[in-house]
Amino acid sequence: MAREPKQPDPPDDVGLDPGDEGQVATEEKVDAVVPRQYHVLLHNDDYTTMEFVVMVLVTVFHHSNEGAVEIMLNVHQKGVGVAGTYSFEVAETKAEKVMTLAREHEFPLKASVEPV
Question: Domains plus CATH for the chain?
Answer without folding.
Answer: 47-115 (3.30.1390.10)
